[in-house]
Automatic annotation (TrEMBL):
The chain crosses the membrane at residues 18-39, 51-66, 73-91, 97-115, 122-143, 163-180. SUPFAM superfamilies: Homeodomain-like. It comes from Flavobacterium qiangtangense. The keyword Transmembrane helix applies. Keywords: DNA-binding, Membrane, Transcription, Transcription regulation, Transmembrane, Transmembrane helix. This is Helix-turn-helix domain-containing protein. Residues 230-334 form the HTH araC/xylS-type domain.
Length: 338
């Protein structure tokens, strides 16, 4: 259970790192344009000062937060509001040149969907659509449109910018959707793990012939469970799926053409372990085997535990000590002393 929570936190931090670096990259791109365009005979389309302020503000804030232990989700919500404000500013400056700039709102909506729920995302979408509709009026009211000049000679440049905007929007949309799917996968696995606790207790206390409740009178139930268990063990021994950090009971069920409930109950009967415990046991055994072969003298211990499927050192240390009774360094020292 704790390993799943650690994995979820790791994925969230990884998403935040990639997302913020991507935002800074986009801001850096537009900042460079503000310096480059005057040299090639074009007017800059966006004021440089807000971009510089946003770049260094986000960079500094991210650096400070990286040194603390704040919950990532509230921070991402704040970042989403900041990004929405930047997109609003871009749209005010450039709406009269190209409407493609409004596509930047798509990743904003996807971020809101990932951080909240579908209902909130739909509400945000409606609000942003209203803002898009009234963008020209707002720009005219604040005289923002008039501060940006452009000529017909800029048409090619504007088309190129449109393509670049589409590429950026597509990248951020796919990035957000990918991690949203990853978060959902882990959260579902956590929920399945919690739901399985009650079922595992019932399975342990019941006879093996009651492995599948809807087949409790079927004389072949035990035999089918044994076959499934052998398939699981064979798959682990031959394919080493545990080395994939994203390996889950859902993936195992798909691979063996069964369902997660059968796997949970089968493991409870034949190993008295959860799926996560079994995976961690195989990962630790893989590491122990590497130490026996003196691979720790060639590679770093970090390389070895990452190669075994662990994502974080804290998780690796805790699981390793739980299984062996020793920390990794203590275990290596004990082997060296022999």
């Amino acid at each position: 259970m704790q390993e799943l929570i650690d994995e979820l936190n790791y994925k969230r931090k990884k998403f935040g790192k990639i997302f913020i670096l991507s935002i800074l990259g986009v801001l850096a791109y537009f900042i460079i344009l503000t310096f480059l365009l005057p040299f090639i005979g074009h007017e800059q389309m966006v004021s440089r000062e807000p971009l510089l302020f946003s770049f260094f503000g986000i960079a500094l804030t991210t650096y400070i937060l990286s040194k603390t232990e704040f919950d990532s989700w509230p921070i991402y919500r704040i970042m989403t509001l900041v990004i929405a404000a930047l997109v609003f500013y871009f749209s005010l400056c450039l709406h009269h040149i190209t409407s493609v700039i409004l596509l930047f709102y798509i990743p904003v909506v996807l971020m809101i969907w990932m951080l909240t729920d579908l209902k909130t995302a739909i509400t945000a979408t409606l609000i942003l659509l209203i803002i898009c509709y009234f963008t020209p009026n707002i720009a005219d009211y604040f005289l923002i449109t008039n501060s940006v000049k452009h000529t017909e000679d800029d048409e090619i440049l504007h088309k190129l910018q449109d393509y670049i905007v589409v590429i950026i929007v597509t990248y951020f949309s796919l990035l957000t959707l990918y991690f949203h799917n990853e978060f959902n996968r882990i959260e579902i696995e956590i929920q399945n793990f919690q739901d399985s606790k009650t079922e595992i207790k019932k399975s342990i206390s019941s006879s093996q012939s009651q492995l599948y409740e809807h087949e409790e009178k079927n004389e072949f139930a035990k035999e089918r469970a044994e076959i499934l268990y052998q398939k699981i063990i064979s798959y682990f021994n031959e394919e080493h799926p545990f080395k994939d950090p994203d390996f889950s009971i859902t993936l195992l069920a798909k691979k063996l053409d069964t369902n997660t409930t059968y796997i949970y109950k089968t493991l409870a009967i034949f190993t008295n372990k959860s799926f996560r415990d079994l995976v961690n046991e195989y990962r630790v055994n893989h590491i122990l085997n590497a130490i026996e072969k003196n691979e720790h003298k060639v590679f770093t211990i970090e390389h070895i535990y990452l190669e075994a499927g662990f994502l974080q050192q804290s998780t690796f240390n805790r699981v390793f000590k739980k299984i062996t009774g020793l920390t990794p360094s203590q275990y290596i020292e004990s082997k060296t002393a022999l």
